[in-house]
Amino acid sequence: MAHLAIVEVSGCVLEATVSPKVNHADLTREVPDSPLVCSCGMLSIQPLKSASSRSLLGSGNAQKSSTGSEVREVNDLDSYKQPVCSNDAIHQWETIDFEGMAKEKNEKADSVMLPGVYRQLDLQCNARDISDLLEKIQERSTDARKALRRSGSKRDVILNLKHAIDSRYAEFSEVVDLLQKGEESGHQSIFLFKARTEAVRTRLRSGSEIAERLFGEDWGDDFFPLFERPIKGMQWVDCRLGLAGKPRDWLLKAYGHDQREETTDNKFGERLGDGLFQDRRLYRVRDINTVMVVRWRDPEYLEIRVDKSLARNFSDTLARLGTVAELLRPAVDVKSELVKLSMRARVTALARDRREFGSGKSGKSRVYRLGRMTVLDGVLEGAVEFRPGSDDDSIDEDHAMAASLDALLEQGGMSDRTPIEWLAPEKSIERYVPLRTVVEGPSLNVVTVQSRVSPEALDYVLEKLTSNS
Q1: How many domains does the chain have?
Q2: Do residues 30 and 88 share a domain?
Q3: For residues 144 and 363, what is the distance between their CA atoms, to the nearest angstrom?
């Protein structure tokens, strides 16, 4: 399959259709101002007359050719159409009009960045949330109602949102806000830390100092947000100082990309003839796209939110935490300058108070439900796991089990790994009820939120679990 590439040669930005047989290094040759087609019929190059190379080269995956020039494959959602080809036909591409897009300005960002935004929407947001935003846009005018559609596939609603931005029915900032809400909260294991010393805490309370340590003294609003992913590894893509209602809070975000081979089948001892046999392994290569978030909640603790996408176990999650910690090292050393914020005492209190707030008795609404949980025995120094009949059952539905749990807690037992379902009829979480979370980790300083949720729902859960911690 051919690829559409954006190539920077001696300060000139070129658009090229490249056959798989053409080496990327060939694209660095000097070309005239007029379109050129190689005699072999496999390469078509023409200069793009407008838009900065930084803007165009900022929306795809980069690699270096043998001559050192940068080649970037454009893989964003709406940057290309699928090729129409036959066995021997040259691949024909209908490309996006970058020249026209470069003339339009919306908020701080140039419209040429939009393909990258839409690609991230496709990866991180669900069709329902995008459709909900389109509905709000439609309500603003009759023209918007006629021009936009909210039905169809996820790709359809994303393209309709792009049309809404291009037609000025909505602002670019609304797309960024939707992306932030869709990728920064939930489907994460959230590691909680406190500063080891008052000096470290003072540093963490200064978002500008953290930013300067990470990005240099010249960093500013024009640095972020970015909407591109590295070919491999992780990079910072956003830094926001002062969040809604929290002027001393700050947030950092990083995008990661990696690949993993996953075996689908093994073929052993296939006969080839003449006494020859072969073993074959069939596997697929999976792209792992992650979003990592670091959030300071003034004045007390730091969150490192580790994406759980395609994480096979808690060891995978810990490995990703190490990568984020390394990125963060110029500003704060996670290992030497922070201590784990344990929620053990708070979760133990929830276990003791479960009848009052978790059962719905005494006319009170059920706030949470405890199912399978582990308790550390303060006397025997062991661990006791309580397992209800099914995942949907509460511990208190088995009276003997509930009595055993109460006795163990009275003897000084402390909660360990504990799944909690939040059931409160609070506006912030009602859409997600039952909101499933797990408090885990050796120090019980990790909150795993199984699904994507709103920032308000995540705030609710963390407030319940960290009060008095």
Answers
A1: 4
A2: yes
A3: 47
